């Protein structure tokens, strides 16, 4: 039932619009607006079965002749027929097709106009103005339908809206009913209403447009000055009390009529529309104007959005800080739970006492061995325990001759020593693994704590949106035929500006988008990502300040022996903050098993970095995880993190080979002195920071490449001879040279990664 009422109301609204526009003309000669509005409404997804009947009825009522009826029906048919053809074939009508159909729809009117004696140039002028009016209507309907009424209009859209208002004023100027001016009634009520929900400038613009529309209709300036005087009166008495502006417009009409005598004649009927408009303004409840202000104004809404956004960021920052403290406290608790194993001397002493208690306590020679010769006996037992711990067991050959000849429990002594040392080693390894696991968890908790605090720092700064730039971007994009329904511009930090533009899907990859954003934001902007929105056909294009540098890279590799699976793995990932991580992981040995180990290691490192953990935490955690495995295959890690914003490369190495930075002024060497991942529980990584220059090439390689050259110096000398500009060619030449040194044979897995900075 509700939808039926809406359709009925829409039909009468369309009927009224077409009735007014059918009477809207230029100089009282050409009337080109009604048919253009019909095509524009159809393009704006309004129901054709409502629009077309309303147009036909309004047009025939205004021109009740045979020629008028035929012209109206032909115009309607030329919309309905193509529309339903496109619906049946499920193909949307293109805009240029719409203009062609609109032009062809005037065929009957052209014929009747020429036969009726209308001058050819008037016919041509009417068609040109009609098609131009169609373009203007589309220019305002499209953005309004895309983003609704509660978004600020761009300057071109405001101009188009002004033309539509002038056309309505032109039609209303020709709608007098026995001297009762519908134009004056409409303008009086609208002026008072606009003054309540908008600023003085818009009130005066509306008054001027209404006067211009009446002027265009018949070259009659009669309403121009009165409407401007009305606007000034309303603005002057614009207070919270609505009676004052309503009274002011009535009083100004009295002055215009009797004192200034701006009208050609005076009748009571001509004065009534102003009074009715003022009374209607007073009768309409305040809630109507409040709703209208929300519909037309965007400033309050945008301010509320900004406040809400910053409030949520403040809440998020506090919670992240609290979570960071919680995880840090949990880290301290886990570290306090670590039970470090006894020292080697304490372990030997403990095992000695256990053996003495088990084997020697009831022996008849106990006092002789452990009192008379206590120091010698203790030294011999500790030596046997040390041998058993080192070799895994002792035998009769490890016992001194005088002990084996004198002791009657030599066999039992050997067995018990081997059993106890084996049990101790198993227990010690178990305790060590448990402690390592606790340390690993502790490291992760510490890393999460640091990550939380970093995130808290990132959201701590209040976002300050740049409304001026947002308006300029909307206007500029619109003038370049890019419909942007919304724009948000703000500074993320002192060096990074962010912009989010909601545009049509087909406009997202246009180069003008970046060019316009860069010009208005004052620095080079690049597209960071494109995300879908809740409205079909629209996407959010997120732009950010381009980093100072960029990079390209090339990779070349060969498996040991020229075939099979390589034990090397690599990673290339873009991180937040305009950073890249480049890594090569070399599983010791070659083949599938080494490759699997390297793949596990590189995968862990890659995910840790993407999550935002610090390098020290990452490598410590990965090292401990790999140390828990019983495998004897270890991995070397060679990582280079390139900060494109600052032009800095951080090298992080564990057991990796030498890296190189080849620039225009020479070649820098980055050596490594750290152990591979998984050998020692507390192994530390080697780190080095290098400031990069334009056109620098960073060379990372596995030991298969580096070992092919005689020394780091020889490799460096070769790099200085390479002339390749493309990093892929650079990598290919390095691999080819390494293979040629060994007569084309890969004695080990070979991987080389070249990164060029520019």
Question: What is this entry, summarized?
Answer:
By secondary structure, the protein is of the alpha+beta class.
Which helices and strands occur, and which strands form pairs?
Elements: H1 2-22, H2 33-43, H3 48-62, H4 66-89, H5 95-104, H6 107-115, H7 120-147, H8 155-172, H9 182-197, H10 200-218, H11 224-236, H12 243-259, H13 268-283, H14 286-296, H15 299-336, H16 344-360, H17 366-372, H18 374-391, H19 401-406, H20 410-458, H21 467-479, E1 484-493, E2 496-504, H22 511-521, E3 525-532, E4 538-545, E5 551-558, E6 568-575, E7 579-587, H23 591-611, H24 615-628, E8 635-643, E9 648-654, E10 659-663, E11 666-670, E12 686-691, E13 697-701, H25 703-706, H26 712-721, H27 727-741, E14 750-757
Antiparallel strand pairs: 1-2, 2-4, 3-4, 5-14, 6-7, 7-8, 8-9, 9-12, 10-11, 10-13, 13-14
